Amino acid sequence: MIKFKKTLKELKVVGQMLKVGLQKELIAQKHNATGRLSRGLNYEVKGQTLNVTSSVDYWKAVNNPKFAKTPNYNAIASWARAKKGIKATSASITRIYAKMLRQGYGQPYVFWTEGNNLRRTNFAGYVANKFSKEVAKKLAPSIGADVASMIREKIKNNTKAKVS
Amino acid sequence: MANTEKIVVQVVVKGEKDLQRVGKTAGGGAKSFAKMAGAIGLAVTAFRAVNKQIGAAINTFKKFEFQMAKVKATTGATDKDFKKLTATAKQLGRTTFFTASQVGELQMNYAKLGFTTSEILDAQEATLRLATATGSDLARAAVVAGAAVRGFNLDASETERVVDVMAVAFTSSALDIEKWQTSMTKVAPIAAGAGVSIESTAAVMGKLTDAGIEASIAGTSMRNIFLKMQDSSSDLSQHLGFTVKSSADLEKALIQLNEEGLSNEEIMGLVDLRQVAAFATMVNGTYSILEMTDALEDANGAAQDMADIMADTLEGDIITAKSAWEGFQLAIMTGSSEISRSLRRVTQAWTLFLNNWSDDLKSTDEIAADVFTNIVQVAKGQVKELKELAEINDDESIAISFSKSLEISMNDLDKTLPALENKMLKAKSDLDSAWKDAPMGFGAESYDVTFEKAKKQFEATKLAIKDLADEVVIQKEKETTAIETAKAKQFQADQQDIRDKEKLAKKKKRKKAKDRKEALALEKQEFKDKKDAINIEYQELENVHKQALIDEEITQATYDEAAFDMEQQRLEDMKNLLIKYGEDTSAINGQILENELSNISEKAAAKAKADKEQEDADAKVVKDKEDARKKEIDGVAQLGDQLINLAGEDEKMQGIRKAGIQLSAAAAIANNIEALSLAAKGVAKQSTLIFPANLIAMAGTIGTVVSLLANIKAMKDSFGNGGIIETFANGGMVHGKSHAQGGEKFAVGGRVVELEGGEAVINKRSTAMFSRQLSAMNSAGGGVKFADGGLLNQPSFSQQQFNALGQNQMMGAMGSSSKVVVVEADITDSQNSVSVIQSEATI
Asked: Is B643:B657 a contact under the CB 8 Å cutoff?
């Protein structure tokens, strides 16, 4: 098992960087009404994975307005029965409902495009893209150092290599 | 793990596997270095060992000589046999991992096990291979292989087979030589008695050790199971329907038991508790046992292959070199090897010189032996050359047998006899003439020597021809035997071929059965996966559904209905799956039906509950109304009583008293009507009861209704009798127009009487009872006295009410201070009235 000591340390630095980046982006997109979303951002490192998380449920709806609306089960049921009649089982209705919950539905009220000053969607994706190169630049030296350390350790610990 | 719903941005350091590979490569490099260093170390060690061996050459010979002396003592071999043992010990010592001394030890161990010299010679080479392949010491290998040969009643020449089986068993299962020794000592004689081959036994043993069953337990269990399989009275044999008498029977039994798919409980009924684990492992692993049996039956040469693989290493080379070195030492010391001969080339000239000298000293027999040896060598060479020629030309007619070649050589030699005889005769003649010509015989000595030599040659040749003739006969016999042996071998090979074909057919059959079983297992797994997928999918849908309920997206009713639908849909999907895989659908059909019935029943219960609640609510409203009305009636009655009490006997207050009495009477009537209404409802309700209970209940209630109707009628009639017109029957008061407006007219006793609104009519009885007071009350209000108005002639007071309620009311109306006057006619009438009511009530 490789020990990514330095890399894990660096991942925490990257986590802080991304958190601040996301908070700034939220302000830039005018999503700073109460500050709950901004304050709810946090990061944690588990294994070789860094997760920047949000403690508030509506971050997804802010990031993608398709999730702002919850599908109406009864409306789906009525539509399905009108469309399929007796074949529209509760299972199929629930399947449609679940899919819409998963993927969101409707159209976002503001489209974000490159160069548009009014960025009101996809703050997470924007920040991830913006910082991707910097993340790689920050992590590369620490990963290299960990790998070198691992090889050194392997050779050092291999007692069979000792010539008597 | 963080909830994925909450992850906004994720950074993953990938390529760990690649890095692990780098780590392994780095480790591999280190291993390479280690191996190289180890090799160098070993080479140095080997060099030292060789040096040591050189120094101990003499000791080696001594040791070997001593060891062989022990072998001779143990085996009791003849000189001839002992020479063979020594020669093979040296030869095997040179060419194998083991030294000649170690081979000597092996021979001694076999001798201790009771092996004869020829058996030792048959078994020793194979045992060496076993020891090489398993890395065990020769003594143990000899004991284990020897015990297996003896245990399975095999010939020593089959040691090779035993060793090959062991080699394959050790490499393809968890068996090793120690486990083999522990288990086989217990099971081998029983297995041999059951006709089960060493291959089948080893395969079963391998399976048991693979399953982690300890060797001793495995051996004991197998022994007991084999015994039960041979015992026709045992539960196991009776279950099988036959006893196991061969490997084929064992195979048949295992396949049968495997296909039956026995549970542990059933197995416990067939074997003892202590053998359940081993037996279950055997039965469940039938196909792997059969596969391993095949592998073991095809194990020919496996031990040699393993030994070759082991020898093809640096370590192997060093060990072989060590053995070869000891052989070299022995060769030097005994002088019987190629190496020794090569060394002796140095002294070849000297030897030749000595030989030349010794030729003259040789006897005729010795010369004959030389001739014989030379001829044999020539014949062998000729056979060899012709054989090679035949192979090259692919022409068997060129080939020649050794005896034939020997015969040809002998004939050639025979042809030389006349020449030799001539030579001898000439020498004789020369000798005679020398003796005759030479003075005193001088010079005849050399002719004498020549004659003797010629004579020796002639005689020796004759002897050699005689020996050769004998040898030709011997060789012919040998060749005849060899042909027969070859024929026997060919026969055996043909038989083996037949057996192989049968085995192949069986193998194919087993493979087919195994494939079928695997396909079945695969299908079962596929079925299970699909079943799980359906359950998982519906569980996920259920979760979504529950969440929708929690989020109040749907109502409880919608949720319940959809949950039921989904469950039924899930069961339908499951049923379709069962149909597809040809499984029984009765249970799931039952479940679907049961769910439907349960749903209908639940819906009906809910509806009944709702109806009941509605009915209770309605009943409550009615009851509340009834209570309110009753309260109102009671209030009126109480007011009436209070007015009566207030007025008392005061004449001036009689108007008030009259009003009180009227109010009490009205309340009494209202009560009766109320009771009637309730009783009528009771009849309606009771009619819904089951026959004849409905009739009985209704009869009782109808009696009450009739009684009440009689009361009301009596009370109405009482007003009627008092002169109240029918429309004013509820009260004693007349409502309507005043006299000035024409008054209210009605017929009484055949006359038309006019009353006006606000007036009251009192019946005869009351008038009789209170005539004075009524007169006073009437005049007090501006009316005339009764003396002026007088009493109207009324019909008789026929149907006076007499029930408790009416009587009480009347009594209440009269007041405690009033006098009650009952005339005889009233009593009679009342009795008649009671009779009528009673007769009506008992309909």
From this structure: yes
Question: Residues 6 or more apart from B134 whose CB is under 8 A from it?
Answer: B141, B166, B167, B170, B176, B177
Beta strand ranges found along B494-613 (DSSP E): none
H or E element in which residue B746 lies = strand B744-748
Looking at this protein, which amino acid is placed at residue B749? G
Would you call B19 an interface residue with chain A, using a CB distance cutoff of 8 Å?
Answer: yes
Bigger pLDDT: B348 or A131?
A: A131
Q: For B258-287, what is the mean pLDDT?
A: 85
ipTM more than 0.90?
no
Q: What percent of chain B has pLDDT over 90?
A: 6
Task: Please state, in angstroms and rounded to a whole number, the distance separating the CA atoms of residues B731 and B667.
Answer: 10
- By CB atoms closer than 10 A (0-12, 13-18, 19+), residue B652 is exposed
Which band of pLDDT confidence, cut at 50, 70 and 90, is reported for residue B796?
Answer: very low
Q: How near does any CA of chain B get to the CA of A116, in Å?
A: 23
Q: In whole angstroms, how far apart are CA B453 and each of B264, B364, B420?
A: 94, 9, 10
The answer for A 57-76 residues in CB contact with B (under 8 A) is: 59-60, 63, 70-74
What does DSSP say about strands B744-748 and A49-54: parallel, antiparallel, or unpaired?
Answer: unpaired
Residues in B closer than 8 angstroms to A54, CB to CB, are: 6, 8
Looking at A67-81, A116-130, B30-44, B736-750, which range is the least confident one? B30-44
The Cα–Cα gap between A59 and B5 comes to: 10
Residue B642 confidence (pLDDT): 79
> Residue B692: is the preceding peptide bond cis (ω within 30°)?
yes
Confidence at residue B28, expressed as pLDDT on a 0 to 100 scale: 43
Using the 8-state DSSP alphabet, how is residue B760 labeled? B
* pLDDT higher at B87 or B289: B289
Nearest residue of A to residue B544, measured between CA atoms = A98
Q: Which residues contact B192 (CB under 8 A, 6 or more apart)?
A: B151, B152, B153
pLDDT value at residue A101: 83
Residue B333 near chain A (CB below 8 Å): no
Q: What is the structure's pLDDT at B334? A: 56
